[in-house]
Amino acid sequence: MELPFIQDPNTSRQLPEQVLPCSTASYDTGRIIRDDYIHPTYRTIATAAMHQWQNAEPWCRTYRRSGLVLVEDSDNNGPLKETYNLTRRELESNGASSLVEELYCRDDIKKACGGLCDTGNWGYLTHKAGWVDAGDIMNTLLKDLKQSENIHFECGRVKSLVKDETGDVVVGILLESGQRLVADLVVLATGPWTSALADTRGKTVSAGEAVAYVQLQPEDGEIFRKMPAFLNFEQKICLTPPSRQLFRIALHRDDWVNTSNIDHPEVGRTDISIPPERGLGPNPSQRVSHERQLRGALQRISPLLASRPIVHFGYCWYDDTLTGDFIVSYHPDYQGSLFMLHGLGGHGFKFLPVLGQYAVATVLEELDPRVKNMWKYPEDVDHDRLRRDHGQGGWR
Ligand SMILES: Cc1cc2nc3c(=O)[nH]c(=O)nc-3n(C[C@H](O)[C@H](O)[C@H](O)COP(=O)(O)OP(=O)(O)OC[C@H]3O[C@@H](n4cnc5c(N)ncnc54)[C@H](O)[C@@H]3O)c2cc1C
């Protein structure tokens, strides 16, 4: 399929790629797939990605077109209204206006949510959108990639980049096992842990969103049968229908930024933003407050949920730039030897079916300059500002 903003795509090229089976943002349960961005470029690319989720193998194996309800507590003419107006105009001009429904009051919202979700006063339902079980599709991809004769997997934790004697060219990676792997081009796609390998201070921060997983009983299935994915932007409630007998709910963008003091392979001992060691979280009062918010949200979604045990409460980590724009670019300090796929923030998963092709198009210099510029390696930003204002473009 031809993708927007890429010249002369040749999708038959074999790409060197590495996928490690780990428990991270990409191995979680539900991820919302939507294309109703305000920003025209993200909108176009998200539509291309959604086309893949809905129609192409292997993506369509896990995609569920459940619809998505987006709400807020007031009809305040803010970004959600703009998103709705854009979506409605676009669908009307394509003769598909029935794919979006305005929800004028809480009763409309409850009805659109199959009787659940007693929250929000205005919003809309888009029938185009849906969700995927992220862990499911990653495992499917991994299985498919393992079949390929052109891809060789070396599994292990990367300790550092390896450079030539000038220090200006990355020539490979060093694994914690001591093994060195040599490469013409190293691609870092290590999510919020990237900052532990390359110095990304002032570019990105690692932010954790509180999540809770509720254990459902087999008889609960019917209650959630007609449930769409759901986002209340003001209450910060984000959820997808249950999968694997688990109901997952997150505090959308109510994240906290972690900074750790580490012995960094590039810059020595320094404070850098990466996820904390396993088990460490925010201060206890913040954690208690997040748990309370999640329990309150569960009660509003369905009193039944509030009565079921929370089997896991924790934080899911993403890496955010100030603007919320991704980094799909060479690292400028290493003469074209290090490529970064980083800063995917809280909205990157939906682009999975197409993002690799945009990365390849960058390498082959086939990418439209507008996208190249949008996803370039960003300028330095003061850490406090980055900590406070990161991911501003999440609305786009
Ligand atoms: C709570 C939450 C909700 C979200 N909801 C949505 C949504 O609804 N829709 C959407 O589109 N997006 C959503 N996102 C965003 C999306 O999940 C992320 O943008 C995406 O998964 C990031 O993928 P990634 O591969 O860059 O990073 P990750 O998924 O974090 O993967 C990084 C990988 O690198 C590995 N790694 C790290 N360091 C090393 C090392 N030193 N050596 C070897 N391997 C290493 C890790 O083990 C991991 O496998 C959400 C994110 C969160 C946290």
Automatic annotation (TrEMBL):
InterPro entries, sorted: FAD-dep_OxRdtase, FAD/NAD-bd_sf, MTOX
Annotated region (Disordered), positions in chain: 267-287
Keywords in alphabetical order: FAD, Flavoprotein, Oxidoreductase
Pfam families hit by this protein: DAO
Transmembrane regions listed in the UniProt entry: none
Necessary cofactors: FAD
Domain FAD dependent oxidoreductase, chain residue ranges per copy: 21-360
Gene3D superfamilies: D-Amino Acid Oxidase, subunit A, domain 2, FAD/NAD(P)-binding domain
Family: Belongs to the MSOX/MTOX family.
Descriptive protein name: FAD dependent oxidoreductase domain-containing protein
Biological source species: Exophiala sideris
Lineage per the UniProt record: Eukaryota, Fungi, Dikarya, Ascomycota, Pezizomycotina
